[in-house]
From TrEMBL:
The keyword Oxidoreductase applies. Pathway: Cofactor biosynthesis; riboflavin biosynthesis; 5-amino-6-(D-ribitylamino)uracil from GTP: step 3/4. PANTHER family: 2,5-DIAMINO-6-RIBOSYLAMINO-4(3H)-PYRIMIDINONE 5'-PHOSPHATE REDUCTASE, DIHYDROFOLATE REDUCTASE FAMILY PROTEIN (AFU_ORTHOLOGUE AFUA_8G06820). It comes from Polycladospora coralii. Keywords: Hydrolase, NADP, Oxidoreductase. The lineage of its organism: Bacteria, Bacillati, Bacillota, Bacilli, Bacillales. Its EC number is 1.1.1.193. SUPFAM superfamilies: Dihydrofolate reductase-like (SSF53597). GO terms for biological process: riboflavin biosynthetic process. Gene3D superfamilies: Dihydrofolate Reductase, subunit A. This is 5-amino-6-(5-phosphoribosylamino)uracil reductase. The gene is ribD. GO terms for molecular function: 5-amino-6-(5-phosphoribosylamino)uracil reductase activity; diaminohydroxyphosphoribosylaminopyrimidine deaminase activity; NADP binding. InterPro entries: DHFR-like_dom_sf, Eubact_RibD, RibD_C, RibDG_C, Riboflavin_Biosynth_HTPR.
Length: 243
């Protein structure tokens, strides 16, 4: 029911703004790490938390990661529910120069589950044609450097995508926050301590210099999944108004 309510919330938000509602989902240890310095992240949270994430995927129109995560983890980003198949969201990758390998699961399975890659105007045209042969949709966002994330969200909104589940990694998460494109944050916290200056954190990038600049979340709710805790908060008062 809770996920169905979130779905209704994003449909309403899309109707009002023309943009998808973006939810940043992270899973971290109590000391704020999502993976070890070697990149080992299986698993941070327990089975019950991970099952809930698959329900989140089921109810979202799209799921988004950066090319760093694709190169490192070769994810499938599909929905795996305990009692059979769920609905797979459209898989979105921010990949300025189309570095995505042709043999990665997001490409090889694009015929069954859509994969859309957003890139910059500098991306190789030949690689674009190769990806098209695998049914991967390539969208140029008009920028010369990184993917223009505002244009990407506008494009998704125009295509009727009402909700995006942002699953990282840290660089993309930061850029989406910096561009004020995240409306909701869902953080699963496992009661584990990992330590390590080189361990990976959920949001990287430059970060803000002053505590007063930190993004303040509102309307906080807390849930427990076994011994894990999940905190949900909103960046803006998005769910209130029908204007
Ligand atoms: N445990 C978890 O929950 C979890 C979840 C996700 C990831 N991870 C881990 O996170 C690590 C990868 O993190 P990451 O930060 O390197 O990768 P990332 O955020 O997935 O990807 C970063 C890349 O995205 C591309 N990009 C395109 N447009 C961008 C923009 N506007 N802003 C920022 N980036 C943009 C950039 O490459 P180009 O310039 O080439 O486009 C950038 O290097 C992996 O170790 C992975 O296992 C863990």
């Amino acid at each position: 029911m809770e996920h169905e309510n979130a779905r209704a919330e994003s449909v309403k938000y899309h109707k009002r703004t023309g943009l998808p509602l973006v939810t940043l989902k992270t899973a971290m240890t109590l000391d704020g790490k999502i993976a070890t310095s070697t990149g080992d992240s299986k698993w941070v949270t327990n089975e019950s938390s991970r099952e809930d994430v698959h329900y989140m995927r089921h109810w979202h129109d799209a799921i988004m990661v950066g090319i760093g995560t694709v190169l490192k983890d070769r994810p499938k980003l599909t929905t795996r529910l305990p009692h059979g198949e769920g609905k797979n969201p459209i898989r979105i990758v921010a990949d300025s120069l189309l570095r995505i390998p042709l043999d990665t699961p997001l490409v090889t399975t694009a015929t069954e589950t859509p994969t859309w890659v957003f890139c910059s105007d500098q991306a190789d045209k030949e690689k674009e044609l190769q990806l098209l042969k695998y049914d991967v949709k390539v969208v140029r966002t008009g920028s010369d450097e990184h993917v223009d994330l505002k244009s990407a969200m506008k494009y998704l909104g125009e295509k009727g995508v009402t909700s995006v589940l942002l699953e990282g990694g840290g660089q993309l998460n930061w850029s989406m926050i910096e561009a004020s494109l995240v409306q909701k944050v869902v953080t699963f916290i496992a009661p584990k301590l990992l330590g390590g200056e080189e361990s990976i954190t959920p949001i990287s990038g430059e970060g803000f210099d002053r505590m007063t600049d930190a993004v303040q979340l509102k309307n906080i709710s807390v849930q427990k999944f076994g011994e894990d805790v999940c905190i949900t908060g909103y960046v803006q008062d998005i769910q209130i108004s029908d204007k």
